[in-house]
Amino acid sequence: MRKPIIGGNWKMNKTVDEAVREAQDLKLEIGQIKSVEVVVFPPFTALESVGKVLRGTEIGLGAQNMFWEEKGAYTGEVSPLMLLDVGCRYVILGHSERRGYFNESDEEINKKLKSALRSGLFPLVCVGEKLGERKDGKAKQVVENQLRGCLRGISAQDIERIVIAYEPVWAIGTGETATPEQAQDMHYFIREILRELFGEKVAQVIRIQYGGSVKPENIKDLMSKEDIDGALVGGASLKAKSFAQIVRYGES
């Protein structure tokens, strides 16, 4: 049985004070929930402060990105060792906004992934197609190419520490959401690729999240699908009440 994992990606939002208040609210709302694995991803500037608030709770701390080197002359970058130092256990890699705005390639994401695994972090690797690619009937081809490129050279042992996040780019921050059926179809397809690459055991244990305008109103329908193991939540994670509703989807 795969334990659901729900992540809150705060993106480039919240000052340190705002982030601390949000973390304090989350601690009260969902700090001791164990049926769902919960992770929040504040901006770099707030990681240490949020981590201190969440210490002793069931809520994990993650970063939104990292560089693949441990140290060196890489102005403006943050290394996996720095993330570990401020209490992170998780890191998002290959988010569509990183791919789109900063031209991150599958090769670069693969280097970051290998570095994260070496350091002991748990990576969330994002894949997903643009609207034009879906309309052209290329959605599965795009996702498969991204998946194979990002996971190149990863061992069957290491892959079990990775969460895959399927995030259709056309549904991120747009208010549009893939139907539960569309999401399930792609999640099943991703699991089939994982089965081919790493075998049946891995395909059955690895968790695949859905990301793309997830809200309290649609989380239950999404999570009812067999191959959807959680959600990577954007805008709805910025308010503790709405994020807590998403985390508690099974209680209503």
Choose one word for the global shape. Answer: globular
Could you spell the SSE succession in H and E letters? EHEHEHEHHEHHHEHHEHEH
Name of the CATH architecture: Alpha-Beta Barrel
Fill in the CATH topology. Answer: TIM Barrel
Low-pLDDT runs of 5+ residues are none
**Sheet with the most strands?**
8 strands, parallel
Radius of gyration: 17 Å
Strand order of the largest sheet: 7-6-5-4-3-2-1-8
Quantity of strands, as a count: 8
What is the domain total for the residues? 1
Key words describing this protein structure:
252 residues; alpha/beta; TIM Barrel; eight-stranded parallel sheet; 43% helix
Strands, helices and their partners?
Elements: E1 5-9, H1 16-30, E2 37-41, H2 47-54, E3 59-63, H3 80-85, E4 90-93, H4 96-102, H5 106-119, E5 122-127, H6 131-135, H7 139-150, H8 156-159, E6 163-166, H9 180-198, H10 200-205, E7 207-210, H11 219-223, E8 230-233, H12 240-247
Parallel strand pairs: 1-2, 1-8, 2-3, 3-4, 4-5, 5-6, 6-7
Can you give a write-up of this model?
Helix content is 43%, strand content 15%. It has 252 residues and is α/β, with parallel strands linked by helices. The chain has a single domain, classed as Aldolase class I (TIM Barrel, Alpha-Beta Barrel). It has an eight-stranded parallel sheet with strand order 7-6-5-4-3-2-1-8. β3, α3 and β4 form a beta-alpha-beta unit. α1 runs parallel beside α2 and α1 runs parallel beside α12. The mean pLDDT is 96.
Condensed summary:
By secondary structure, this protein is of the alpha/beta class. The chain has twelve helices and eight strands. It is globular, with a radius of gyration of 17 Å.
